[in-house]
UniProtKB/TrEMBL annotation:
The keyword NAD does not apply. This is Leucine-rich repeat domain-containing protein. Keywords: Leucine-rich repeat, Repeat. The keyword Repeat applies.
Length: 343
């Protein structure tokens, strides 16, 4: 079962205890470099885990046979790239080290060895984490996942019951998730109770029928990344200016989540206006708006002094305004009328 987000704090410690109990060993990936070149914190962790080290397997760059051999030997998805794979014995003492040096699975990167994974006795994954790709998987049945979510607040798993949007939102609120993906519910508007997800930092919505964005969405003060994919969108409300921590905003019309969909002609897309209030998003670094009938870039965007990427693809804009040249952080601009999928 895939986790919507990685458990943190008390939930992280409970998941580590669970994985230690159900696994024979855990695996961390280190870099193929001298230990002297590693950060002090990194070296300290390796030293603390040294008594529990079972074996080390090095896979050199381009050695795809080595990766395949490891995957086949342990029946595991933990091995996907080159590096030095460190196998440690699962026991109470090694688990205590894992709980002491990190607060969540996504901590296992950069300053620590990467991608903490657990392998069961005889092979097969119990817990998989690929931090770069935001992939966290607990290998349990749907019934086991449902029970574990009742026991561990903060362990938010993608279970079958989440096909019901209200159940998904109930669990998202209960587990105080900071990451959520909504798709396949055939809704025309997000429920206003989205405002209850007060810890949310990343929200992606892929709903073909979505047409309106509720005011409650703009009360998510911690939101840093908002990704909306839909066939058509009525408008971008001026209230978007409330999302003061937003760093990435992506709105893509002409998107379908099911087969047999025919895209509207671009002139019939309702979204035809960028509200100047977007210029009040002081932290915004990337703005993507795709396949709309928008005809101009409002001067208010000049206030986005942190903006690095501006993508306004498949729109009706026929020129780039001169003020873009005054935006010193802007490194990439893509303003194109042609639709990528046009013949």
């Amino acid at each position: 079962m895939r986790m919507y987000t990685d458990p943190r704090g008390k939930a992280y410690k409970q998941v580590i205890d669970l994985a230690i109990q159900n696994s024979e060993c855990f695996v961390l990936r280190s870099h193929n470099i001298s230990a002297d070149c590693l950060p002090a914190e990194y070296r300290s962790v390796l030293q603390a885990l040294e008594p529990y080290l079972l074996r080390t397997v090095t896979v050199n760059d381009g050695d795809y046979d080595g990766i395949t051999e490891l995957s086949d030997t342990y029946h595991s998805q933990a091995f996907y790239t080159e590096g030095k794979y460190l196998f440690y014995r699962c026991c109470e003492e090694s688990g205590e080290v894992l709980k002491r040096v990190a607060n969540r699975l996504s901590d296992w990167i950069r300053k620590l060895p990467e991608d903490l994974c657990f392998i069961k006795e005889g092979g097969g994954d119990y817990l998989i984490s690929v931090v770069h790709e935001h992939i966290y998987i607990l290998c349990v049945t749907n019934e086991e996942a449902t029970e574990l979510m009742e026991q561990i607040t903060g362990l938010f798993l993608d279970i079958e019951a989440h096909r019901d949007l209200d159940r998904l939102l109930d669990d998202a609120v209960k587990h105080k998730t900071d990451w959520l993906y909504i798709s396949g519910h055939e809704i025309s508007e997000l429920p206003d109770r989205i405002r209850e997800l007060t810890e949310l930092r990343y929200l992606a919505v892929f709903e073909q029928d979505l047409y309106r964005l509720p005011e409650g969405l703009f009360e998510l003060s911690k939101l840093e990344h908002l990704d909306i994919m839909t066939a058509d969108l009525e408008r971008i409300p001026a209230s978007i200016s409330k999302l003061k921590n937003l760093k990435i905003l992506s709105i893509r019309c002409g998107s379908s989540d099911r087969t047999g969909f025919k895209v509207k002609p671009i002139d019939e897309i309702s979204l035809n206006y960028i509200p100047p209030e977007i210029g009040e998003l002081e932290q915004l670094e990337r703005l993507t708006i795709q396949y709309t009938s928008i005809k101009e870039i409002p001067p208010g965007l000049e206030k986005l002094q942190r903006l690095k990427v501006l993508e306004l693809r498949s729109c009706k804009i026929d020129r780039e305004p001169a003020f873009l040249k005054n935006m010193k952080e802007l490194k990439y601009i893509d303003v194109a009328q042609k639709w990528l999928w046009e013949s």
